[in-house]
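Handout, section B. The chain below has 201 residues.
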Amino acid sequence: MHPPLVRRHDTQGLLQALRLALVCLLLLLAQRVPAQGVELASLHASRAEGALNLEFSARVSLPRTVEEALQRGVPLYFVADAELFRKRWYWRDERVARVTRSWRVAYQPLTGNWRVGLGGLNQTFATLGEALTSASRSASWKLADLSQLDLDKSYYIEFSYKLDTSQLPGPMQFGLNGLTGQGDWAVGVSRVFKVELGTSP
């Protein structure tokens, strides 16, 4: 009988499991650290004029790699996405509404200015900081009509704001190996928060 052999195999299996868990943890941390280029300054929903509106503002700090790409003429797209869900105990939570906004930030080398586009509206700024401030906030953003909602039910919002690497030029996307948001390009933030509907606006 060789009991130590059994213990050795058990120990090896445990060590392999611990190594795998450690690798997974390090990978998660590696993905989370770069994504701290965005800090939410404010985020809340409110009722006004028969609608549930969303308001947010963020502070964006671009890694040097991303900023250099901007200065070389590569336009960047920042996307805010908000989904409103109704909680249900008997089935998956129901998505009631979803809204998305996209800002285009580009450098104009001839004038040395920065341009921000939102839909059909374009604005020009003297500095990158001013451009990023404009491209990282929204007020009175309609999420849903109150007529769609039941004030006696529970709702929550899943919100995200990020640099959309899927809109980078093709060669740059290829350079990211098809895994958008890796490394310095993982600029973004996400939050989930409860919506209070039972009180008057």
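Note. Residues 37-195 form a domain with the Immunoglobulin-like fold (CATH 2.60.40.10). Compare this with the example in section A.
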